[in-house]
Write a structure and sequence with these properties.
Layout: H1 2-36, H2 38-45
Helix pairs in contact: 1-2
């Protein structure tokens, strides 16, 4: 029983971490896009 609770807590922490990481990346992309324009970003990602 304890193991299941621990796994759930770990999953929740991992999900939260992934969400904060994604939002940070999105913020960086938005900043880069506003600085350089969408075209250069598209070339960077291609």
């Amino acid at each position: 029983m304890y193991q299941v609770e621990k796994n759930t807590a770990e999953k929740r922490a991992a999900t939260l971490e992934a969400m904060t990481w994604k939002s940070r990346v999105n913020a960086i992309i938005r900043r880069v896009r506003s600085h350089f324009g969408g075209f250069r970003l598209a070339v960077l990602l291609a």
